[in-house]
Design a protein that fits this description.
The complex is a heterodimer of chains A (about 260) and B (about 800). Chain A has about 260 residues and is mainly α. Chain A is about 25% helix and about 0% strand. Chain A has a two-stranded antiparallel ribbon. In chain A, strand 1 and strand 2 form a beta hairpin. Chain A is extended and about 85 Å long. The relative contact order of chain A is 0.13. Helices cover about 30% and strands about 15% of the residues of chain B. Chain B has a seven-stranded mixed beta sheet with strand order 5-4-19-18-17-6-7, sandwiched between helices. In chain B, helix 5 crosses helix 15 and helix 9 runs antiparallel to helix 12. Chain B starts with a helix and ends in a 10-residue tail after the last helix. The chains are: A mainly alpha (about 260), B alpha/beta (about 800).
């Protein structure tokens, strides 16, 4: 089949223009910098230059050689971590182990009355509203070893509707009060793992997803060690991981 | 039988539905457990009047988790911090688990039989001297049982709820404006309004789910103009475009000022007013219905309320008042007003309620979605139980009043009572009840016993040194308290009964938007704790068995006779048999008969089992289905408006289908700061705690976040006094004194000359300071303003938290 010369010229032109735009956009460092964190000291040497694209592996390759294994053990997703304001000080990835997961879940429990409860705020707050919260928790932030996790749900305008501070305005409560009002509540324990239809199948999500729809907030590179996904570069979690109608309480169980 | 998981779920759901439909089944909370062993079931939240639905997760007979219910229209899956933790309220370690009787100064355990017999003896001592004091936390069936027990059984109208202290001025406002209680609109207005006017209201803390329903619209690109009128800055203020700081009672002047400007600029809605409204003013003597006036007289009465005069009375700049009037004068905007206790706890509460309704009627901002005068309530069933069941001293169920012979006859007919059983004279309202209970018989103290259920008057009555303490120091007054935890009230009681709480029993609530909700018992109450409704029925039966005539109807049958599906009587007064039938269903189906009179029709019980609440009137359609009503009095939605009419106020006090636009004058507050007591004192809530903190103090995350009360003070007042943040000061009013730490630039920011103290802390009782002065119509006291002075406590730089007193819980156990 003979292709008219005009078409070929147009095609070539389109490729050239697209490439030029792509090059300009792709190299603009501002596009990778999360707004609002310009104040953080950002040593150029600490920013890993790792967004040189690596060829994608096929799914079969991934089974034998997953991300973050072997030579890629230190690999982490800079686009995502920068989006979270985590561009600096990212420790080399530890192998996500059951021990780490247990520790992560324990840490989470300290801030929650039961699995699924809104966490309390582990630091003092001002009365300046949602913008103050979102400055750090909107995209997530890290300063030294302190991590401000990204919120796992779409932002609401009144954070303090669901989240209260861990201590009162005058510091920790009188222990005699704590004793007077002690509780015998036994909380729902954090879920451990989803179910797999067969070994190697993607696990189901072991918790409700209502208000926990931004998976990468906890399971992305900014999440606690032990909960982090081995493949955070895949943006559509629900493509492979099913929610559970019963855990999500969508089943006919409730009249 | 090999049943797959899916079909098992289906079978279980079917079984649950069948169980729910079978009248003999008491608790049909038979849902399937998920993979983590948790069964989820629906319930309305136990706390405020918003009426969110929560999902309650139960495992091994205990509540282990709570989640927002995405199927609920009210909250759409979201809750507030109290709602998320409501399940923890059941598990404080000091739950009351045995009946306790005061013997030789101490409360000692007794059996339920002894407890019930003790109450029966107190009734026999003189039924007219026996009063009941309940609350808007009574479930609908509980309140109905109490109502029937008192007004039908004892022939005594001395039953009143704490709702008297919380929303009775809203009731009188509705009655004097529309001739019938409760709002025309619903929460749908919040999704549609262009302007939200807050009249002394702090929904960001007190009704957070409703407030986020408004402000989250902004994230979707919608514009909502929020105007915050109040006596201090709150968590709501940063979300508002305008903050109008007013002097206490300034709201009366502002409402009249808006009406004045609407008339002066001819921007009122002439068409709406001509077709649907009439005018009223106080007669001599003033009554709830008042006297009819015409537009000219209304105009004359409003003439003094020029913007400049209103500025002088309210402190709100004339220009801001003009802005408000211009907004109300625009037909292209939809305006919703919100208010709660700022307007209700007010010695002119009826006046300000009717004036705000009047501003909306005069400007035609009424009845279209988004155009609504909307009052909120603070208790989960203040509407359902206190108002609709009518557990107030002057009411009978379904909007009836004891003063009407016709209404008494109707109630006697439904209850099958001999004619004349129900007394015509209203019983004692809350302040009167506790004041008489405090006095010796010779001085008018004709109440010898009060039975308190689901509330904590020892902490929440105003001026407690006058209304609560005296009876505790007298030997001849007997206080019975049913509650779940030790409180200021149980500690002072003569007999304490342990009660079941929330999902430990079946229940029904009615929220602020006329929505009736139902839930099933999901877990067992601890120890010997039992349902409040059972306690009432058991006492009624004890009286019946002891020959008390009032507990029999005119056919000689017991007032609370119940039968199973086969018609076989079930002795529900025997606790072991109580859940053999669904007592809630039986009581509710009887109560339903009362509801059509005032067009507050309720659907059969089973409709509520299926729904996340339904808004009354719920009217059966030709196809047999039941339809709720979102917009009352509006022809497009309310089935009781005559065909073809845009609006019809079918309970109009003028009898012609019109709503009343009231003039009521500005009046100064009952006590104003002077040289001796130079500051204002306001009291209220915080988001962490609900009411007297009985439940929320036992919820760890909430208590840790807000462990104790404090006093908010302006920085300038603090420096004038020479106190620093966290330092303790002494507050003194003419009625009492209290020491508290100062919180500068804290949760709220009062202006110079104003202090604010939350009332949740039982070890720092601010109601020793408050005023019992009350509205002449609603009898609701004003907790929001009185005169106070503050002193520095010399040499007290100690740790404020450590210096705070510790409640003497279990002092007597």
């Amino acid at each position: 089949m003979r292709v008219p010369e005009r078409v070929l010229t147009l095609l070539a032109l389109a490729v050239a223009v697209g490439g030029a735009i792509g090059f300009g956009v792709g190299t603009d460092p501002a596009r990778y910098r999360s707004e609002g964190f310009a104040v953080l000291p950002r040593d150029a040497a600490e920013v890993p230059v790792a967004w040189a694209a690596e060829p994608a592996r096929s799914y079969t390759e991934l089974i034998a050689r997953p991300w973050c294994s072997g030579a890629d053990a230190g690999w982490h997703v800079d686009g995502e971590s920068l989006r979270q304001g985590l561009g600096v000080q990212q420790p080399p990835r530890e192998r996500e182990s059951m021990a780490l997961r247990e520790r992560a879940l324990e840490d989470r429990t300290l801030l929650r009355a039961f699995a699924g409860a809104p966490p309390v705020i582990p630091h003092p707050t001002s009365e300046s509203g949602a913008s103050a919260c979102l400055a750090c928790h909107g995209d997530g932030a890290q300063l030294g070893s302190l991590v401000a996790p990204r919120i796992p749900h779409a932002p609401y305008a009144s954070c303090t509707q669901c989240h209260v501070t861990g201590v009162g305005p005058f510091g920790a409560e009188d222990p005699r009060r704590a004793a007077t009002y002690a509780s015998r509540f036994e909380p729902l324990d954090a879920p451990r793992a989803g179910t797999r239809a067969w070994p190697g199948a993607p696990p189901t999500i072991p918790h409700a997803t209502l208000l926990r729809s931004e998976c990468l907030a906890c399971h992305g590179p900014g999440g606690r060690a032990g909960l982090r996904s081995s493949h955070p570069e895949r943006a559509s979690c629900l493509q492979c991981h099913a929610t559970d109608a019963e855990r999500d309480q969508r089943a006919a169980a409730v009249p | 039988m090999n049943v797959g998981r899916r079909s098992f779920v289906k079978l279980a759901a079917l079984a649950a539905a069948t169980a729910a439909a079978r009248p003999g089944t008491a608790h049909a909370a038979e849902t399937t457990a998920g993979p983590d062993g948790v069964r989820w079931n629906k319930a309305p939240c136990r706390f405020c009047g918003t009426g969110c639905h929560v999902k309650v997760g139960v495992k091994s007979g205990r509540v282990v988790a709570i989640a927002g219910d995405p199927q609920a229209e009210v909250n759409r899956g979201l809750l507030c911090v109290q709602g998320y933790h409501v399940g923890l309220a059941l598990y404080g370690k000091d739950r009351l688990t045995r009946p306790l009787l005061r013997k030789g100064g101490a409360l000692v355990p007794i059996s339920w039989e002894q407890a019930i017999a003790t109450i029966a003896e107190r009734v026999e001592r003189g039924p007219r001297g026996f009063a009941m004091y309940g609350s808007g936390q009574w479930t609908i069936p509980e309140g109905y049982a109490a109502q029937k027990f008192m007004k039908g059984g004892l022939g005594s109208n001395h039953i009143d709820p704490n709702a008297r202290l919380c929303m009775s001025s809203a009731v009188t406002g509705f009655l004097s404006t529309y001739g019938v209680d409760e709002p025309a609109g619903c929460y749908d207005d919040l999704d549609r309004c262009d302007v939200l006017v807050l009249w002394g209201n702090n929904p960001a803390e007190m009704h957070p789910v409703l407030f986020s329903r408004v402000i989250d619209r902004r994230a979707r690109g919608e514009d909502v103009l929020i105007i915050d009128m109040g006596t201090r800055r709150t968590r709501t203020t940063p979300h508002a475009q305008h903050y109008l700081e007013m002097k206490p009672h300034g709201d009366l002047a502002i409402a009249n000022g808006i009406a004045h400007l609407l008339l002066a600029s001819d921007s009122y809605d002439r068409k709406f007013v001509d077709a649907h409204c009439a005018f009223r003013a106080d007669g001599d003597p003033p009554t709830l219905e008042g006297r009819a006036i015409d537009l000219d007289e209304y105009r004359r009465l409003l003439a003094p309320y020029t913007p400049e005069h209103v500025e002088k009375l309210s402190g709100v700049p004339a220009a801001k008042l003009r802005m408000l009037a211009e907004l109300f004068g625009r037909r292209d905007l939809r305006i919703t007003s919100l208010w709660c206790l700022g307007m209700n706890q007010h010695t002119r509460g009826t006046a300000i309620n009717s004036l705000v309704h009047g501003v909306h009627l005069l400007s035609g901002h009424f009845g279209r979605p988004g155009d609504a005068p909307t009052r909120l309530t603070g208790q989960p069933s203040a509407c359902g139980t206190a108002r609709e069941v009518g557990t107030l001293a002057h009411l009978l169920p379904g909007g009836r009043v004891v003063a009407s012979a016709e209404h008494r006859r109707q109630a006697e007919e439904i209850w099958k009572l001999p004619e004349g059983r129900i007394r015509a004279e209203p019983g004692y309202h809350t302040v009167e009840m506790w004041s008489r209970f405090s006095k010796p018989e010779a001085e008018g103290g004709d109440l010898h016993t009060i039975w308190v259920q689901v509330t904590n008057p020892g902490q929440t009555l105003p001026n407690r040194n006058a209304l609560f303490t005296p009876s505790r120091e007298r030997g001849d007054k007997f206080l019975i308290v049913s509650d779940v935890y030790p409180t200021e009230t149980t500690r002072a009681a003569d007999l304490v009964l342990p009660s079941a709480l929330w999902v430990e029993k079946n229940g029904m609530f009615g929220n602020s938007e006329r929505r009736t909700q139902q839930w099933f018992k999901m877990v067992s109450p601890p120890g010997e704790a039992r349902d409040d409704a059972w306690q009432i029925i058991a006492v009624a039966r004890a009286l019946h068995d002891r020959g008390f005539a009032g507990m029999r109807d005119r056919d000689g049958k017991f007032l609370f006779e119940m039968a199973d599906a086969a018609g076989k009587p079930v002795p529900v007064w025997d606790w072991r048999r109580y859940y053999d039938v669904n007592v809630d269903r039986a009581l509710f189906e009887e109560y339903r008969k009362f509801t059509p009179l005032k067009h507050k029709d309720l659907a059969p019980y089973d409709e509520y089992v299926r729904a996340r609440g339904l808004r009354w009137p719920v009217v059966q359609q030709k196809d047999g289905s039941w339809r709720e009503t979102r917009f009352r009095f509006a022809g497009f939605d309310d089935p009781y408006v005559e065909k073809g009419r845009e609006f019809q106020f079918y309970h109009s006090t003028s009898g012609d289908g019109r709503a009343q636009i009231w003039f009521r004058p500005y009046e100064p507050p009952p006590e104003v700061p002077d040289d001796e007591y130079p500051l204002w004192l306001c009291t209220g809530r915080v988001i962490e705690h609900w009411h007297s903190g009985t439940l929320t103090m036992r919820i760890d995350p909430l208590r840790r976040s807000m462990p104790q009360a404090y006093v908010e003070m302006h920085r300038d007042d603090a420096s004038a006094l020479g106190v620093a943040n966290g330092e303790r000061v002494r507050l003194e009013t003419r009625r009492g004194a209290l020491e508290l730490p100062v919180w500068l630039d804290g949760r709220g920011q009062p202006p110079r000359g104003t202090l604010f103290v939350p009332f949740f802390d039982e070890s720092l009782l601010v109601n020793a300071l408050t005023l019992e002065a009350h509205d002449p119509f609603s009898k609701q006291p004003d907790y929001k303003k009185c005169a106070v002075r503050v002193r520095r406590i010399a040499a007290s730089p100690a740790e404020p938290a450590a210096a705070a007193p510790v409640p003497a819980s279990g002092r007597e156990r």
